[in-house]
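Box 3.1 A note on notation
Throughout this textbook, protein chains are presented in two layers. The first layer is the amino acid sequence; the second is a token string describing backbone geometry. Keep the layers aligned when reading.
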Amino acid sequence: MLPNTDPKQMERMMKQMGINSRQIPASRVVIETDSENLIIENPQITEISMQGQKSYQIAGTIHSESRISEEDIKMVMEQAGVDKEKATESLKKSKGDIAAAIMDLKQ
């Protein structure tokens, strides 16, 4: 934002230029990628509409979790002889390291 600018005045100027924005209440945002999930807690989300397009600005506390594939879970289940829940828990604990998850479960 511009320094010393009244937020209401800024909003009016944006509307005059055809830009609309609104706050979206949410408690959590999850962005899923191929290798991990990015989790944003207590997000502040602003939706911006301009020329028929919408974009989102998200700010908050972020942390990531490794994504665990079904193939990895099945392999750990078979190799360690455990159920899906235990295999998934062990993979999360080992941050997706299949060998470490199997070794941990076999101890």
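The radius of gyration is 22 Å. The chain has four helices and four strands.
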